[in-house]
Amino acid sequence: MAAKAVGPVKRSFAPWRDPASAPFIEFRNVTKRFGDFVAVDDLTLTIYEREFFALLGPSGCGKTTLMRMVAGFDEPTVGEVLLDGQNLAGVPPYRRPTNMMFQSYALFPHMTVEANIAFGLKQDRMPKADIATRVEEMLALVKLTPFAKRKPHQLSGGQKQRVALARSLARKPKVLLLDEPLGALDKKLREDTQFELVDLQQKLGLTFLIVTHDQEEAMTVADRVAVMDQGRIIQVATPAEVYEQPNSRYVADFIGDINLLEGRITVCNDGFIRLDCGVGGGTVEVDQTMDATPGENGWFAIRPEKMTLSLDPPENPTVNCIAGDVWDIGYLGDVSIYHVRLAGGATVKATVTNRTRLVERPISWDDKVWLTWPRDAGIVLTR
Ligand SMILES: Nc1ncnc2c1ncn2[C@@H]1O[C@H](COP(=O)(O)OP(=O)(O)OP(=O)(O)O)[C@@H](O)[C@H]1O
If both were cysteines, with which of 164, 198, 201, 352 could 105 make a disulfide (CB 3.0 to 4.6 Å apart)? Predict the structure, then answer.
């Protein structure tokens, strides 16, 4: 993910920081077992109204199961799921103010776009005239008015995705549940659609819960992200927080690219930590406040784009400076990723932005280089 910007700049919306905010979706000590297998493990989570919330994690970590418990396709084995203060236990899916949009879209192939959008409304026995108005409104919302009479096979992947979205929104759910909604789209269309989704969510003022294993997608669309592992939430925070202040090696490593150097904490004062990373990493000093004791093991975590690579040694190389040899260079166009092998044998990645069009490579294979960084560039993790 390199030095990519962290999502669109969002409104100043942060109900999770306000103790007076009422929870909207609440998981209270929820466990979900399938036979002996624990898919969700004693999980507690609060999501707020109008939030765009992303569940992120590797395959099988329980993301979809969580979402299905909101939709009513699964019930918790233990614990409660509440929506707007109401316990959802026993409420069937069609009685819940939620709608789930699947990756496959599940459009009816023999029906036109407008008939697909109208389907749920007919089932709800909405008066015909109202259905027509609502369908028109939804078509305009997803910019598909000219395609109303087409069948799904006459649409592109992105258009089908928008029909599915219009159909999910037609019944005006309070919560839209999106399970890998953009999985079928190519990268470029996917990126455009992510911004459209955010736009739509803000325009409608709805709560969106998205499941994805694409971390860039989660970072782009979400107000907050929950990073999951084996049925548990490891960290819930804004995209910038999970990127800049991961609470563990698991989160640091799952989101973007990161270098982890193991060491021993030698000094830990208020706002300052020193770590001895041995021959490979040298002495690291970090501006950070944390609970740790000298002597404890720690990991210095730093993103590749936060290191400066140089052919010349720095003037005062006592801390936050390591030397190594360029072992590999990955040219990605916008940036190059340098793999630098340290004396101890470990490899560190550093990203260099290719600002000029020059194909000249000032730093090349086997060059001896120095990596430096400021004291606020990385963080120390103890788990
Ligand atoms: N109906 C079921 N019966 C038995 N096991 C299930 C059932 N549904 C899910 N599981 C198991 O629970 C775990 C979590 O599944 P879930 O679908 O929630 O994962 P996920 O994080 O959404 O994964 P993916 O990203 O692959 O969709 C998996 O190991 C899965 O095999």
Answer: 164
pLDDT tens across 142-162, in order? Answer: 888 999 999 999 998 888 888
CA angle at residue 125 from 121 to 127, to 5 degrees? 85
DSSP summary character for residue 182: T
SS3 159: helix
Residue ranges and CATH numbers for the domains of the chain are 15-97+173-249 (3.40.50.300), 258-381 (2.40.50.140)
Residue 116: CB within 6 Å of ligand 1? Answer: no
Mean pLDDT of the chain: 88
213 lines ligand 1 (CB under 6 A): yes
User: Letter for the amino acid at 17?
Assistant: R
Question: Which ipTM value was assigned to this complex?
Answer: 0.94
Locate the DSSP E strands across 109-188.
175-179
Residues of the chain with pLDDT under 70: 1-11, 104, 279, 317, 356-361
pLDDT of 79-120, one tens digit each?
Answer: 999 999 999 999 999 889 999 987 767 889 999 999 999 998
Q: Which of 75, 91, 81, 92 is nearest to 39 (CA)?
A: 75
> Is the CB of 60 within 6 Å of ligand 1?
yes
Q: Please say whether the beta carbons of 195 and 219 come within 8 A.
A: no
Torsion sign across C-alpha atoms 301, 306, 308, 314: negative
- Residue found by looking up tokens 């407008």 in the block: 114
Within a 13 Å sphere around the CA of 303, how many CA atoms are in the beta-carbon half?
Answer: 20
Amino acid at 14: A
- Ligand 1 pocket check for 34: Cβ under 6 Å: yes
* Closest protein CA for atom 22 of ligand 1: 64
pLDDT in the model for residue 199 = 86
Decide whether any atom of ligand 1 lies within 6 Å of the 356 Cβ: no
Ligand 1 contacts CB of residue 207 (under 6 A): no
> Where does 33-127 have alpha helices with state H?
63-71, 113-123
Task: Indicate the top mutation candidate among 32, 38, 65, 73 to test ligand 1's pocket, ranked by most ligand atoms within 8 A of CB.
Answer: 65
